[in-house]
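Researcher: Let's try something more involved. This one mixes different molecule types, so please make sure each is placed in the same coordinate frame as the others.
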Amino acid sequence: MNGAESLMRTAAAAGADVCFANLGTSEVPLAGALDRVPAIRPVLGPHEAVCTGAADGYGRMTGRPALAVLHCGPGLANGLASLHNARRAGTPAVVVVGDQATWHAAADAPLTTDVPAVADPFCAHVGRCESAEGMARDMADAIGESARGPACLAVPADLARQEVREPGADAALRRRRPVDGDRVARAADALRRGGTAVLFLGGGALSREGLLAAGAVARATGCRLVHETFPARIERGGALPAPARLPHPYDDAAAMLADVSAVVLAGAREPVSSFGYAGRPSGFVPDGADLRVLAGAPQDCLDDAVDALERLADRVGAAPAERTGRRAGPPAVPSGPLTPETFAAAVAAAQPADAIVVDESLTSGFGYHRAAEAAPPHTCMVAPTGGAIGHGLPLATGAAVACPDRPVLLIEGDGSALYTVQALWTQARENLDVTTVICDNAGYEIVKWEVDKAEGVGPSSEALLSLDRPGPDWVGVAEALGVPAARAATAKELGGALRAAFAEPGPHLVEAKIRRAGA
Amino acid sequence: MNGAESLMRTAAAAGADVCFANLGTSEVPLAGALDRVPAIRPVLGPHEAVCTGAADGYGRMTGRPALAVLHCGPGLANGLASLHNARRAGTPAVVVVGDQATWHAAADAPLTTDVPAVADPFCAHVGRCESAEGMARDMADAIGESARGPACLAVPADLARQEVREPGADAALRRRRPVDGDRVARAADALRRGGTAVLFLGGGALSREGLLAAGAVARATGCRLVHETFPARIERGGALPAPARLPHPYDDAAAMLADVSAVVLAGAREPVSSFGYAGRPSGFVPDGADLRVLAGAPQDCLDDAVDALERLADRVGAAPAERTGRRAGPPAVPSGPLTPETFAAAVAAAQPADAIVVDESLTSGFGYHRAAEAAPPHTCMVAPTGGAIGHGLPLATGAAVACPDRPVLLIEGDGSALYTVQALWTQARENLDVTTVICDNAGYEIVKWEVDKAEGVGPSSEALLSLDRPGPDWVGVAEALGVPAARAATAKELGGALRAAFAEPGPHLVEAKIRRAGA
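Model: All components are placed in one shared frame. Result:
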């Protein structure tokens, strides 16, 4: 057995059963190792962003090490934007990068790059193998450290080929830790002190167990539940507590938290604006409000947010239980042409039970989250946890690989879709049950809105922020990459197309022509 | 005038008349500045790799600053692989990245990243603006330093909005410098000493002037002319001297240089293998051969290779002149089904005069370079100067923007095409005269060949190195993105489709179904 195989065996023993990969010559020993470790299923991404984005989706859904193998330097670079989102989501992704043979590095051949330096700004852990014998241990370390987000391991090709004695190493993600009792006590005090208190939720707090505990705390203390704007994963629908989503637009977010007297963070960071606006504070928690950390965010620490919320619920005298006030029924089925409002309602009304919903709709989909509160139980993942667009198609791909028995619904902006349209090919090849609905509003509306607010849209910025002349034919793109597709211009057509797509296994795409406000 | 506008005016004054861009909220002030500096034409790339790859093509063709504006962190990351190629090509690209407002950086909002750290492994120069008043000077420095390859400048959004007194700064690429006379003398000695001498050409030595001087040196000394495997730009065809291309496969390259007694480098680095192979040296120049640097490579220094070759020609008693032995005529027109051989011949036979040929064909196109020696005069750019694939479509896009009066022919591998297929949309929007021919061999053949050689292709590596099940329908993809397309399975069909494409303005695509050897 060589070093590469000991590395792959270590990954497989830690629960990695899939490898999202795009290989080059420096990964030849890793390719050979995958051939000899059939417990790991290879999934080809025809661009590295598909691999790292899919790894993020797999990791968010399984909690197991999400393995990717990428080519040195530029290949890794192509996957960084998705690793950035995975880092902010705290996803346990492990990216293995083949590197030049140690003795060949000094030749500075065209593909030679400093792999750890390339990975460092986007990873929670970066390593480089120094020997074949240490490769299994290096991989175990990378897996362990990926508990706080992506780890990257550079594997020189010559070392990967050397024979080793050890067949692999034991490996597991580092475990979450109970938070200090003082934090629970102080959080309870802050929520019970009167005034307007908010329990601000993210990370593990948005799991079913976390939400049930949070709901119990809200009932016992009267606090409001709010969740972060871009949650990596949240359980929703049915009878689960439905925290309010902190809005993305600055004014709306500031208004939601304007009157709070206390904010307790559970699995989340303090909420801040995505960008700085002159004369306004970075953070949304008002001066003078009592800010407490019950449990930190996954990207920052290993705090166990679920355990912390359950202990908090005990402390405030609440018993975790399903919310009694069940919603009346499924979302209403809208009619008429597709506007952002009817679009959101039509998607929510059509989504099947137990769906995994991936949201990268940005402007078109802001209404979806509210509309889907009454949908059947489902998991929602907001794609751009780190603000990097082009993540939705790969994320949905990885979620479908991870959960073959659940339907995946991707709500995708047109600007984002064009970033990583190659993921459709992987969905076709793997016959994944993903239905993508493209919100075709012919532009990067979210940025155009910011330009318009700041200084008005002129001819150059209009040209740079519109996806028209020509508008991509999404049905044509999908079918050419092997994904059956349809087009919808009304709420009824969209509902019909989505139901037809979910009724048939394998990937589908629906292009939704959304009229802009005032158009 | 604000800082952003002073920066753009500096770029425009230095000759940048195009900006390849993909914007986010941190670039809003830069968008406003582009609206107020109409001398710079905005070109939208629907993925940052399209922007940086197009900037590389524009810079290689014009020698002027190739401007790109990208979004902070992840946006820049998406463009790094193309910057890697541009770095190895020594292209004068200047990438401006909007960054968080200085006072907002501490909030570590989702998109906050260390922009200089992200850029550093792939750029010749990295800067960050510290004041609005210094922004024009910072841009001038970035432009100057881009003479050795891409420069990156981070522009905090708050500073970009501040008013400035200075309307811009003078800026120009740093000039190439004459090499020391000793180097010319030593090169002449090495080439005249007898034995088998090679003048190894790259960078500026592959310009028309450089090649004519090199040809004169070869006639006077009897040395062989060889050029680097992945030249950024080489003038070819007609009556120009035609150096041999150093082959990509290790054994072929080693064989070409096995018997040399002296190698003189002109605008090129010492030739080395792309990857390390056990038991074989990194470099191809045999032990004991006399290795001399006449002029270094553009990525390493500002040596003026053309001037050095002309002085060398004088020194060895040769007068620069066109080669007398003109070739007999245009390449023969092949017939029969498309194999790598008939494909190469059909493309060379169909290419129009004064074409810009972009080559990212890898395995399918190795035969093209020899076939095109007899073609009419043309410029050839090999896309992956740094080995990063997915560079052809963007590079051709930028070349067509730079040279609207010349037809652009892109010979593109299918694996590479799927990386950056979004560039077709930009070609359609800008109505660029690019004809893309896709070498459809249904896989990453170059890597499969390496795996097969090293350890044999097993089921996992076969799955990861084949682009089949389904094969992308390239005609469908192109048409859906606004590019008319056709399909060819024989040499005759390919020739006809290429001639029809060149006869009509605007972008076209031809899918060439190439039979693998033995298939």
